[in-house]
Amino acid sequence: MRQVLIIGSGFIGRRLGQALREAGHSVVLSSRHPPEGPWAGDWRGLDASRPGAIAEAVGATGAHAVVLVHGPSDITGCESAPEAAMATHAGIATHLCQEAPTVRKVLISTDNVFDGQDTGYDESRAPSPANAYGRAKLAAERVLLAADPGALIVRTSLVYGYEPRGPGRGWRNFFMVVADTVRSGQTVQAPVDHWNTPILVDDAAAVLTRLIPGGPSGVLHLAGPDRVSRFEWGRLIAQSLGQDPNLVRPVARAAGRYSCRPANACLRSLRLHHLPELSGLSISGLAAGAARLGPLLDVPPR
């Protein structure tokens, strides 16, 4: 059993914490505000940008590993406040290295560290960030790897999965946006020229649970096996729920909130399938992922 401190209690942080607990590890979620979604474990209030706060949290929890999966993660929002995004992501990585130099360090990074001019990117490709969010995450990557060669950087593609609606909360991932909208009979717009390699949050959490306690270091890409446009994926989601796929309407990426994102936010990995820690694990394609999520939405299997 390992003691794991997760800095960030959003969609990915909560599901990762649950998976780590199910694997027998002791987990504490930490963030400025309490988790907004389901979390039955320990939570600690933490402003990780405050000098000394991470040292205090590591000392109080006895953490052997610290996972950074905090915000700001609103890519469009980061474009309007790039200095704040940079200060938060790079700054918290710096505090972690200074205040907890001996712990296992894992950063959940992003496909936005690439410019999206190619159809896909593996770990050998040199980053060229597409936006302020990508620049901030890349800066955090470099801080960690410069200070600790044993750190692990996991770049994820679009993560999706089930999220219940709570008071004052909207859906936070594309699957739920589409599912909620088309099941109410309304139309939803999705770009025809924005490509992703989406990964189910449960699969991402299963992989990370094997890797966080120890093992590989450096940069690792974690993505699903299917490369798909948001429009195509939206139609697949609608069909999997027994809804009219024509409720998903095509738009251009430049016409809306996706305009600041790389056209090809697609990852592939040269390393993932060769890691002995991941023996026996598989990552669902989009059709299988939708089938796994259907029962959570009370949708009869098709």
Automatic annotation (TrEMBL):
Superkingdom classification of source: Bacteria
One Pfam assignment: RmlD_sub_bind
InterPro entries: NAD(P)-bd_dom_sf (IPR036291), RmlD-like-bd (IPR029903)
Domain RmlD-like substrate binding stretches: 3-273
Protein name per its UniProtKB record: Sugar dehydratase/epimerase
Lineage, highest ranks first: Bacteria, Pseudomonadati, Myxococcota, Myxococcia, Myxococcales
Gene: valK
